Amino acid sequence: MERQRKHWLNAQQKSDIWKMWRAGESLSAIARMLGRHPSGVCRVICKTGGISPVARTRSARSLTLAEREEISRALVAGMSMCQIALQLGRSTSTITREVARNGGSHRYRAHEADANAWERARRPKACVLSENARLRRLVAAKLKLQWAPVQIAGWLRREFRGNKDMQISHETIYRSLFIQARGVLKKELVAHLRTNRLMRQAKLASASGQGRGRISEAVSISERPAEAEDRAVPGHWEGDLLAGSGNSYIATLVERHSRYVMLVKVAGKDTASVVSALIKQVNKLPAELRRSLTWDRGTEMASHKKFTIATDVQVYFCDPQSPWQRGSNENTNGLLRQYFPKGVPVDGYSQAELNKVAARLNGRPRQTLQFMNPAEKLAETLGVATTG
């Protein structure tokens, strides 16, 4: 069966993309709303470095489509350029140029002429930095010193108070860095920016724009029992998703007391896939290892109540933008990159293969465990819990 191809994004869809981007929505969220793949949305956003293009408008002095239709009808009627100009209240030279550049009297078509005029009007404004070599060198030098564009713009205003030619806004610096068509500042200078982003983020972009912080009835980490905080009792876990390319993910679980790791194959990042896979894995654990789970604010755990009912494990959520509250899990995900490098898909692994990787990690001695390994530590703890 032939695969149905989606049409290119039209002007209205592109306008919607920029509207949602300015509102702080993430690329994946925009793609879901439009029923598109995130890569298609990314192409639109990245083309101008995440900077919303200025809406184009026609000059009030330009000929309108209605006037061009009048010209077309007048030409068919055999009227002269002077007569047409008089009828429209335009100069004769304006009408003459309009007709000549659009095929002449016999081939002139109003709609084609209007479209051609709109296309010819694409005259990109010259970048300030491209016309001022001294200013360009100064900006580049400060970027190499890891100065932020805002700092550079402020310093220039103070240093060159009476010279407007040596002043520039921070937004213009960002545009010169991120918009591909300009290419005034070298791409390597982007690496000196603090964030190392490849495009400009919207002013409203935040956790609320990334599909986070919208979990119903989330229980804060501040309510987690003290026994979980001091790692004294086993059975308290930290969890997260390890991302691969192509929207592929692995769920990672780390037991806080022993640092024991479990890897869980998930079909996708949606909450139904993640929660059902976690339920299946966690229910294999003995009761003494099922006490709590700490997760970040990702909406993959939106169905946390379903997870708690099925496993009797309470889920606690970290504060926004506080990855250190899941320190063991963050550290473990870093270790796992040795087996699952960034930029490589992770959906091709079976659960058995993931178990083998987890076993290798659980067999490595940890300095924080006085060089016991997590498997030994967990076995020792369970032995004490059983005999006690």
CATH class of the largest domain: Alpha Beta
* Termini separation: 63 Å
Shape: elongated
Query: Overall mean pLDDT score?
Result: 83
In DSSP terms, counting alpha (H) and pi (I) runs of 4 or more, how many helices? 17
Which structural class do the helices and strands define?
alpha/beta
Relative helix content: 40-55%
Given as residue ranges, the uncertain stretches (5+ residues, pLDDT < 50) are 1-5, 206-213
CATH superfamily of the largest domain: Ribonuclease H-like superfamily/Ribonuclease H
Whole-number total of structural domains: 4
Strand order of the largest sheet: 3-2-1-4-5
- Assign the CATH topology of the largest domain: Nucleotidyltransferase, domain 5
Order of helices and strands: HHHHHHHHHHHHEEEHEHEHHH
For the secondary structure, the number of strands is 5
Largest sheet: 5 strands, mixed
Using the 3D structure, state the CATH architecture of the largest domain.
Answer: 2-Layer Sandwich
Radius of gyration: 31 Å
